[in-house]
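Hi support team,

I've been running sequence recovery on a batch of backbones for a student project. Most finish fine, but this one hangs at about 90% for roughly twenty minutes before it completes. I'm not sure whether the input is malformed or the queue is just slow. I've pasted the C-alpha cells below so you can try to reproduce it. Let me know if you need the job ID as well.

Thanks,
M.K.
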C-alpha cells in the first residue's frame, strides 16, 4: 500500500470520526432543547394550576398544558417528576458521603 493510499485511508477515518462527533453533539443539543421545552411547559402548568386553584381561573389552560406535556413525553420519554426540593435533598445526602470518611486529628 502506497503512501497516498494510507493518507486517503486516514483522511476517510478522520472524516468518519468527525461525522460521529457532530452526530453526538447534535443528539446532545436535541436532548437539551427538549428538556428546556419541558421545563417551560412544567413552569406554565404550575402557574396555570395556581391561577385555577387560588384565583378562580379556568382550568382550560391546565388541560391544554397537560396535553402538551403528554405529547412531549410520548416523543421524548418519561417526565422526571422529582421536585426540586427532593432533588436538593438527594444531592446534599450523596455529596456528603461521596468523598469518604475523613477526620481531622490534631494530635
Amino acid at each position: 500500500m502506497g503512501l497516498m493510499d494510507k493518507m486517503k485511508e486516514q483522511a476517510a477515518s478522520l472524516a468518519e470520526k468527525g461525522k460521529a462527533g457532530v452526530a453526538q453533539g447534535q443528539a446532545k443539543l436535541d436532548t437539551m432543547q427538549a428538556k428546556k421545552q419541558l421545563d417551560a411547559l412544567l413552569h406554565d402548568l404550575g402557574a396555570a394550576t395556581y391561577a385555577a386553584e387560588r384565583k378562580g381561573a379556568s382550568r382550560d389552560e391546565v388541560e391544554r398544558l397537560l396535553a402538551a406535556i403528554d405529547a412531549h413525553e410520548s416523543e421524548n420519554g418519561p417526565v422526571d417528576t422529582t421536585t426540586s426540593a427532593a432533588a436538593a435533598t438527594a444531592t446534599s445526602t450523596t455529596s456528603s458521603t461521596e468523598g469518604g470518611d475523613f477526620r481531622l486529628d490534631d494530635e
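--
Follow-up from support: It reproduced on our side and the slowdown came from queue contention, not your input. The mean pLDDT is 88. No action needed from you.
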